[in-house]
Automatic annotation (TrEMBL):
Can form homodimers/multimers. It comes from Semnornis frantzii. It holds the Pfam family AA_kinase. This is Delta-1-pyrroline-5-carboxylate synthase. InterPro entries: AceGlu_kinase-like_sf, Ald_DH/histidinol_DH, Ald_DH_C, Ald_DH_N, Aldehyde_DH_dom, Asp/Glu/Uridylate_kinase, G5K_ProBA, Glu/AcGlu_kinase.
Amino acid sequence: VRCWSNIPFITVPLSRTHGKSFAHRSELKHAKRIVVKLGSAVVTRGDECGLALGRLASIVEQVSMLQNQGREMMIVTSGAVAFGKQRLRHEILLSQSVRQALHSGQSQLKDMAIPVLEARACAAAGQSGLMALYEAMFTQYSICAAQILVTNLDFHDEQKRRNLNGTLHELLRMNIVPIINTNDAVVPPPEPNSDLQGVNVISVKDNDSLAARLAVEMKTDLLIVLSDVEGLFDSPPGSDDAKLIDIFYPGDQQSVTFGTKSRVGMGGMEAKVKAALWALQGGTSVVIANGTHPKISGHVITDIVEGKKVGTFFSEVKPAGPTVEQQGEMARTGGRNLAALQPEQRAEVIYRLADLLTDQREEILLANKKDLEEAENKGRLALPLLKRLSLSTSKLNSLAIGLRQIAASSQDSVGRVIRRTRIAKDLELEQVTVPIGVLLVIFESRPDCLPQVSALAIASGNGLLLKGGKEAAHSNQILHHLTQEALSTHGVKDAVQLVNTREEVEDLCRLDKLIDLIIPRGSSQLVRNIQKAAKGIPVMGHSEGICHVYVDTDASVEKVARIIRDSKCEYPAACNALETLLIHRDLLRTPLFDQIIDMLRVEQVKIHAGPKFASYLTFSPSEVKSLRTEYGDLECCIEVVDSVQEGIEHIHKYGSSHTDVIITENEKTAEFFLQHVDSACVFWNASTRFSDGYRFGLGAEVGISTSRIHARGPVGIEGLLTTKWLLRGDNHVVSDFSEHGSMKYLHESLPLPQRNNN
């Protein structure tokens, strides 16, 4: 804990030897000394006269937060000219209005012209006001700021350089934020041909070069350059084919076309890139990002330091494989080629993958053994997750059987006609099934998920991006290799991609131009995080599996214990395991109730009492903290209800619309339950564990959806398809169908072509 102005704050442990820039974004959180360069477009208003106070306040808040974490923050700021221009214009208008009022009367005030203001005069008038503003804002966070004005000559004179360096170090030592600007009131024009003459020399001709020079001089870990564009594009921003470059490497300049400068300021993007590469060469990491966008400017600096994918990151380390953006493009192209194959060809790929799972089982199990050993040695996985991570010969055999089911059922999934309409004579409309596009499937601990999801994507003609957990890295690698080997049978290897880069899940969820649907497979926390992080991309899945079993008064004694045991104890970590047991009040203190309790005790299931159940007991189990709890272990809640209607109301109030069961011999009661419970899966006298794609005969599932749009319940091939409309005409135009036109709408339903059921 450090103290400043009598306010204690927690510091993050930061230690790094300067000399080499960070190789990956994920390492930026270790940055100790940071320079934030604020471009003119960030600091000034749209009219270029006056400051953007809201943005400036947000930037100060972020810098203060990082400073109070124990980092050493410096700001290189523009804005003095704009602030001065605002002040001088006000003074000139006031002066002219007084003179003209005295000599000419009020009628000529509207004809006043404001003379062109010289930039150096504006800077002189604006520097003190700009600094006063910074001081007032930083004071709100109990942080002191100090102003330093420099010119290019200060860096050419060795004594001045040492003085500047010493001043900055002393300010940082005292936890003061230095605010640096070029002294535009006296700055001379830049020296000719003095720019970028080596690591030790860069001409300070704008604040970009000043920030780069300062960053290297001060052995800074990170330089953040904020402008009015998202980062560096491969062509001028705004052009049709412009793509944001996530990571820029030295030597990539030839692949970039630079546009014009920003609306204000001295340096354009080309100047920023030159300064960034110079700083990178000097051992400082650089990120160029947008500091003006209203949706991200409030957290852009902290997001960059946290390693999130914001702007363009400059790195000297080029990864061996493709970037995730390139993988997304490959999956898109590969998916379209996959969809263009004949159904039998897609089925052949899946059959081949099924054969590889059994033929290469020894290599798969060896890779899986490595994952299990590493997980056990690190002790980072709970027992249920270790079970999910584990593969076995029987699991691989079951996988192969499931894949063959998918292949057999996929013959007419893509391109199936589901509606035909004759709009008019010789004008026929068809609605046909097509792939969704590119799927992103994020899964934890379960390597068996990879071939299952891959087979479903292949059958439905979708491109696929897979992001598995680190704990299953070896298993995922070999399973993906086998998947691509199977895809190579028909030359569509790129359709399924495994993301191995250091991409954070949150960053993947922002790739809305590359990904059409996200499917999370894992804990409820993972699903919630992805649903929160997804920006404009639909998420299919469920955040919780709070499944209920309701035991009715007419329940069979022989069936109750058996169904409850299977629902809770067969695989308690599964999302379709029983979590809340609802018992009709009339069954309390009956032999059937005692049988249920005895069975749960034998299976070592910990019981939590619901409020109503607890009220009936003298000595009750621990009362449940929440009736909306997914235990994922040998635990469950027991609650009492007065009727089937009350049971349904309880399920609707506390359930997650996943899977709910009634046990009864009364068919009328059962049908009432089946029709009125609003869940993805509703069962009568059957275990909750049947809620599964394989058990439903879908071959496998990409997950279980509790959404009410598109797909619901276990999602197989059908859930990965959408539709498009095909209209075949012969010189038809809408005007022919007008009131006085020659044609009439028929809208006749036509028979569908016969499905291939072989």
